[in-house]
Amino acid sequence: MTDYLKKKQSRRQVLGTLGAGALSASAISSMPGFVRYSQAQTSEPIKLGLQVHRTGIGAAYGRWYSRTTEAAAKFINDNGGINGRPVQVITEDDATDPKRGAEVVEKFESEHKCDVVFGTLFSHVVAGSAPRAGELKQPYFIVSEGTQLAAGGLNRYVMQPGITDVKSQVQSMAPFISKNLGKKVTMVFPDFAFGHDHRDFFSEAIAKQGGEVIAKIAIPPTESSFTKYFPQIPRETEVLYHVMVGPAVLTFVKELGEFFGSSSPAIFGFLDSLEAVDMASPGLEFLEGSYFWEGNPRYAQENQTEYDKFYRNAVGVDENGASVSDANDISTYSHMFGCWETMNIIKAGMEASGYKDVNDRSKLIEAVEAMTTIPASNAHPQGDKIFNGKTHQVFGHQYITQVKNSKLVLAHTTSIEDTFYPDAVDYTTQSF
Amino acid sequence: MEFGPNLIIALIEGSVQAAVLTLIAVGLSLVFGVMRVVNVAHGEFFMLGAVLAWAVASFVGGHPAVSFILALIIAPLLVGILAAAADILILKRINYDPENTIVATIGILYIIQQMTLITYGPDARPVEPPFNHRFSIPWFEYTEQGYSMYWPWGLGTTSYKLFVVAAAVAVIVLLWLAISRTKAGLMMRATQLDRDMAQSFGIPVDRVNAIVFGVGAALAALGAVLIVPIQQAHYLMGGEPLLLAFIVVIIGGLGSLPGTIVAAVFIGLSDGIISIFFAPTLAKILSTLLVAFVLIFRPQGLFGKAVR
Amino acid sequence: MRAGENRVWLLHIAVVLVILALHFVLPPYHHGILARVMVLAILAMGYNFAFGYTGLLSLGHALFFGAGMYAMGLGITGLGLSPGIAVLFAIVCSVLVSAIIGSLALRTAGVSLMIVTLMFAQAGWYLILYFGEITRGDEGFVIPQAQRLVAGIDLADSNNRYLIALILFAIVLFTTLKLVRSSFGKALVAIRENEERAKMLGYNVFAYKLGAIIVSGTISGLAGAAYGLLFGYVGATFASVQYSILPLLWVLLGGASTILGPFVGTLFMTYLIDISSEFTEAYLLVAGVILVLLTLFARQGIVGEVKKRFAPWLP
Q1: Cβ burial, residue A300 (10 Å; 0-12/13-18/19+)
Q2: Helices and strands in chain C, H and E counts
Q3: Candidates B288, B290, B294, B303, partner chain C, best to mutate (most C CBs within 10 A)
Q4: Which residues in chain B have their CB less than 8 angstroms from residue A195's CB?
Q5: Domain count, chain B
Q6: Does the CB of B85 have a partner CB in chain C at under 8 Å?
């Protein structure tokens, strides 16, 4: 039985590395006993389980989460690994399904013997998996933007140190929108929890700026045509706020353009509506001049940091946000940096706590909880961040870009303080 | 938006949906009428049509109109052949037993869907329309100066959407002629009426079955080629149309082609019109319940005579 | 006949004892899978009662599964019920939902019944999304570990979970076994085989079918409540169309109108998917191929074929 398991793991490892298309470095460096790690007490690799949406509605994100993670593993291994030990990424597909997500968490724990699990994006998969992670006492680092963690809905083993949550993102947009675009906002969003977060937190935030949301149009999931819902946009709308996810996003934005024709209100969108979609796709011309939230600007900006340059190059993304090997393969640049940064947090946490094996898991969590300011660096290319150890949630800058010549050009960067909100939970009071 | 313009939008959008739905549902209905089997894999034939349209467009390149016309021919043809093969290899061997056919076609559904996932991948990919012009429609409102014309937001459509409706109507008319005026159509109708009798009159019932199954699938694929420039090709796109087509076929009365067409228009339009009055998800709830209650109080469907 | 009777009970008791024995020997991962399979097999057994024994082809059991799960979950987080009471509450809700749906849907038969049940289930799924304020929509909600204590037993512990799943599984297994061998169960089979004849013999066919739907829906609702409570998560995916199709597949694979078929089918399919997901992301391809092969070569399903060929006494 054990031999069988070992074989399976090594095959997975090879598959994972092949998948990244970067065979050489990480495969060689993750071989046990490789010279560079000889100073470490043990050269057994640290195993990180990547729970990835390879199939199902999250697949476009999953592909890039996977690539970014492989690149981050290479970056970490090239810099001496974690505590002198190499990092090995083991990937399992959760099919963007919460039941499968929980099973995959079990698989990482008992089949693959992973040290930690990370990388989940869709919030229903997080909610389905988190209870199992807590029961198994397995550190579970999500890259999800979901708000249920900081709202106190999960447990002490779940952390989100690599990406800000929707509440932060949404509320920090309100001042810019009310100052520059208008005060009467109509929101179009998907009719599930992610969309409801947008609706609730933005309505609250824009009211504080003296604006108001005059219509809230929730689109049912699995919908594939959208025009019939747009007549509910009131005539007095000054700003149209849109956010959408799933395989039909391009249809959604195109139909929005066809609906308005040449006379539209100001348009502000979350880039989720066009993640992994080429801005130059036919039918998107009407977006010219409109604004987007971006987690991390897809197009290399004029004032691009050295860190972004390094990270972009390491993951294999060109200056337009597409894969260097295929210009039609557009990245999910606004989200995937979360995987890179989370991996580096795991490294920092393991090194600070002297992590050796699964018995040190609570020390790892305490070490991450103790983190506060995280300065921008090659390990954190998206920008400076502040981690809140009580809510297990990170806070950081948000970017607003404008479409100019079918490219997204930086127009405004929010402060970290714009993303703050009062704590709703203190996970450090929960026992391990 | 005011009621008038909103209704116009709902009608236009509803017609596009009804047009494609008619093609899909007529295919399903044809198969049920002649072969008396429920084809759960029908939605995947639709999906394959869309994916093949993308494949043709990306292999051929050039002006979108060229690849569009090629796709109109190639996609239904390939899908039809595949479906006929599935009929001969699988459905015929289980003697079209009703329950086993449902299971077998669920199996075929997964096979087609997952093969597409392996080869085409999990992404949604767009196909460019052969032509696409947006035009606005004016509306009138009563102001202090009497009636005046204005151009409301969103009151407009695209030439391609109108083309989809026209093309679907043309296909249905052609199909109608083929069924009612040709020898092949006669054989098909004979098989539908009484398959044993048809067999004893020398009609190759097995071949009729394979062809009908192929044509049914090809109609779904054709609908997909028409709609894919508006939507996108994705390996999971077959589920929703399958559900809708089922509803249409049953509401229309199983196996009744005219009933199917009327029901497709009814379902296509009602979806749009209900969403004028209610929040989108509530509209979905109401339209699904509407279907359930139509069936509960008229189990034979709106136009059917009797249900098995 | 007496001997045959004993043989049937002994077999099913032996199955339960084997699963109990496995509790002590299985490695953790497979231990976890089996706990899941047992709860899902309850759903499949509930489905089989309507589909296998009564011949009612429903594609709406996700509604019952979801109703039980949400009644339990919202009972705990919304109404502040204790877990035990919440499960009872879920059972009551499942009875109500299946009685209402049954009395409406049973006006139709055959493919129409399939569509009507499907439509009700879709409406139920949309309702969960529509009332996102209460249900958190697709994201669902977690039942806090502190609230998963029944009489001091922590359901978050995998040993407790396995044993509780086994107890529920055994209760449903023996209940359905008893039911199908009762006059009620025999009447249902008679209705499935020839509805007109059953009518002429004086059976109130509608009442029997409604009874079958209520039993079936309530068992499915219990499965939903148990799944949510044991695994700590309530979400809209579990009320989606997928969970109407899955029990159909499990039952067909294992063998419709056999008592052990649903469990065998669920177990087999779960491992099939788990093992094939090691080799391909398109692991449902294997499910598709198996289904087609099944219809070509083993129409009665696994247990059904065993029954046909070797053990006609199997219930």
Answers
A1: middle
A2: 14, 4
A3: B288
A4: none
A5: 1
A6: no
DSSP labels for A254-269? HHHHHHHTT---EEEE
- A133: domain range? 2-164+334-396
pLDDT tier for residue B305 given thresholds of 50, 70 and 90: low
Q: pLDDT tens for residues A253-303? A: 888 888 887 778 999 999 988 888 888 888 788 899 999 999 999 999 999
Is the pLDDT reported for residue B143 higher than 80? no
Mean predicted confidence (pLDDT) in B188-196: 83
Stated pTM of the model: 0.88
State how many domains chain A has. Answer: 2
Same domain? A31 vs A131: yes
Q: Is C84 on the interface with B (CB under 8 A)?
A: no
State the complex-level ipTM.
0.87
Q: Give the nearest partner residue to C122 out of B38, B250, B288, using CB atoms.
A: B288
User: What's the pLDDT tens digit per position in C52-110?
Assistant: 999 999 999 999 999 999 999 999 999 999 999 999 999 999 999 999 999 999 998 88
Residue A253: which CATH number?
A: 3.40.50.2300
Contact between chains at B118 and C280 (C-beta distance less than 8 A): yes
Please name the residues in contact with A221: beta carbons below 8 A apart, sequence gap of 6 or more.
Answer: A190, A191, A192, A246, C129, C138
Interface test with B, best of A188, A227, A252 (most B CBs within 10 A): A227
For residues B195-223, one letter each, b for 16 or more C-beta atoms within 10 angstroms of the residue's C-beta and e for the rest, the string is beebeeeebebeebbbbbbbbbbbbbbbb
Beta bridge partners of A187: A216, A241
Give how far C297 is from chain A: nearest CA, Å. Answer: 30
Query: Could you give the percent of chain B with pLDDT greater than 70?
Result: 96
